[in-house]
């Protein structure tokens, strides 16, 4: 699978699939994975905690890929995430991320997440733990 398709499959599974088990993160991300979001650095344990928190906070989500660009082991994606919180509130985020692959797993992400619509409390949605 090409890195662009792998990235799309990963984000659809991890963010949008309500049946996604956290144990499956290892299939998508390397053990030394690091994510930088809006200037905050999350190592793999912090990222795991972030995804667990999203799973508790969000009732559902969808992703619209606006543009992707691949070069070697890297894929840049601009995508829009629309989500419904457990309390019924909604949010919309625009994400610009550079994803680096090692083999078929993501080893690094440099991301900017911007809350376009929703509650101010969701401004940290890209790195919340």
UniProtKB/TrEMBL annotation:
Gene3D superfamilies: 3.10.450.50. It holds the Pfam family SnoaL_2. Residues 22-108 form the SnoaL-like domain. InterPro entries: NTF2-like_dom_sf, SnoaL-like. This is Nuclear transport factor 2 family protein.
């Amino acid at each position: 699978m090409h890195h662009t398709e792998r990235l799309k499959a990963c984000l659809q599974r991890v963010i949008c699939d309500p049946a996604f088990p956290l144990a499956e993160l290892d299939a998508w991300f390397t053990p030394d994975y690091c994510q930088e979001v809006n200037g905050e650095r999350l190592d793999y344990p912090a990222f795991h905690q972030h995804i667990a928190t999203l799973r508790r906070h969000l009732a559902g989500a969808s992703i619209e890929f606006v543009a992707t660009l691949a070069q070697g082991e890297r894929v840049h994606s601009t995508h829009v995430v629309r989500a419904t919180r457990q309390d019924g509130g909604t949010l919309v985020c625009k994400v610009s991320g550079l994803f680096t692959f090692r083999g078929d797993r993501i080893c690094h992400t440099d991301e900017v997440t911007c809350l376009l619509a929703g509650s101010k409390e969701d401004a940290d949605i890209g790195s919340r733990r």
